[in-house]
């Protein structure tokens, strides 16, 4: 259904046009009217008409000046110009403003009907094209999301990653990438990833979030597209973001950050780095931001813990709950007092 604005200084003609159009079998749902261009400008902005019927000669701002003003504002309204004989020079100027129809006074109902029907057909085609484009864009974005998630999950080898990015027309604005892995002590629904994204965009103007999803560990994984010189600014701003999030949402949040890279095939590696960094919250949960450190992560440490395992087994066999608790405390005291403890080593101990 379409809206029509009639701009005409002659009160009788203006009201007569509205009366005639309202009786036509056309999908028109609303009318507004103005007596000159100045008055029509405000109505155009508030009413947002699909079709504007305007006279050329009017007091104050004439029809062509009004059309020129509206076209400069990027309005997509369709125009029908009304003019008398001897005003052909005005019609020539109107062509430059992409006026759809030009009708001579006195206006014939049939001509007016044909002009309106033609415009409505154009509007319908434009609407269909917009829907098609939106639908196509939506499908493309869904496909790109699937491909990015598979890439980050390591589903493609290095050579395939680059070709998949190219073939799916995924574009990045900046030269490199980092990955964030985020978790909270609260259990978030999937909608809360939007909340986290809102905080990032609110506090970190530098950050270009290319993609985000929830991992199998219920961590939020963010692929961030940034230049190398922005990395330090991002980490400092993330600290501020965390402070605001904890304060406003009354919950703890932890973020692991990967290294920066400009090698597209290394994206799966960044996810692992971010997840490994996040694991350090198991050792020190007083911190909230953990940067990937290749040296620390590469350490492989073995602990002579058999004596503690034996103590735990003996206490379990005894069936004494207090003894079990004490033996477990002995194990973890030994682990946490080791200065060279890594998150990876702690996870291995717990799994064993």
**Rounded average pLDDT:** 80
Largest sheet: 5 strands, parallel
Q: Which descriptor suits the 3D outline? A: elongated
Q: Which oligomeric form is depicted?
A: single chain
Structure description:
By secondary structure, the chain is an alpha/beta fold. Helix content is 51%, strand content 17%. The protein contains 13 helices and ten strands. Strand 9 (253-257), helix 9 (267-278) and strand 10 form a beta-alpha-beta unit. Helix 2 (37-47) runs parallel beside helix 3 (63-72). The longest helix is centred in the middle third of the chain and has 44 residues, at 109-152.
Task: Provide a short characterization of the protein structure.
This protein is of the alpha/beta class and 352 residues long.
């Amino acid at each position: 259904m379409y809206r029509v604005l009639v701009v005409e200084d002659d009160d009788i003609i203006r009201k007569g046009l509205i009366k005639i159009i309202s009786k036509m079998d056309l999908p028109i749902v609303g009318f507004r009217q103005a007596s000159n261009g100045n008055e029509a400008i405000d109505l155009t902005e508030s009413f947002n008409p699909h079709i504007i019927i305007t006279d050329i000669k009017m007091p104050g701002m004439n029809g062509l000046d009004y059309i020129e003003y509206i076209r400069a504002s990027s309005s997509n309204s369709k125009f029908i110009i009304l003019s008398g004989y001897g005003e052909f020079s005005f019609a020539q100027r109107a062509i430059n403003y992409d006026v759809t129809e030009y009708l001579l006074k006195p206006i014939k109902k049939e001509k007016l009907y044909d002009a309106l029907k033609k415009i409505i057909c154009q509007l319908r085609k434009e609407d269909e094209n917009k829907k098609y484009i939106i639908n196509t864009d939506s499908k493309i974005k869904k496909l790109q999301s699937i491909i990015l998630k598979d890439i980050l999950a390591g589903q493609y080898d290095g050579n395939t990653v680059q070709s998949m990015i190219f073939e799916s027309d995924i574009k990045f604005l900046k030269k490199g990438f980092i990955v964030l892995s985020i978790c909270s002590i609260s259990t978030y629904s999937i909608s809360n990833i939007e909340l986290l994204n809102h905080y990032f965009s609110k506090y970190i103007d530098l950050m270009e979030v290319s993609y985000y999803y929830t991992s199998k560990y219920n961590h939020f994984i963010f692929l961030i597209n940034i230049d190398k010189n922005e990395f330090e600014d991002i980490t400092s701003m993330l600290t501020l973001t965390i402070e605001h999030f904890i304060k406003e949402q009354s919950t703890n949040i932890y973020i692991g950050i990967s290294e920066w890279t400009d090698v597209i095939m290394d994206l799966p590696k960044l996810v692992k780095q971010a997840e490994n960094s996040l694991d350090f919250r198991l050792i020190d949960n007083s911190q909230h931001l953990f940067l990937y450190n290749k040296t620390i992560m590469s350490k492989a440490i073995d602990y002579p813990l058999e004596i503690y395992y034996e103590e735990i087994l003996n206490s379990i066999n005894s069936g004494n709950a207090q003894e079990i608790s004490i033996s477990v405390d002995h194990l973890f005291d030994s682990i946490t007092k080791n200065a060279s403890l890594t998150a990876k080593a702690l996870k291995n101990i717990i799994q064993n």
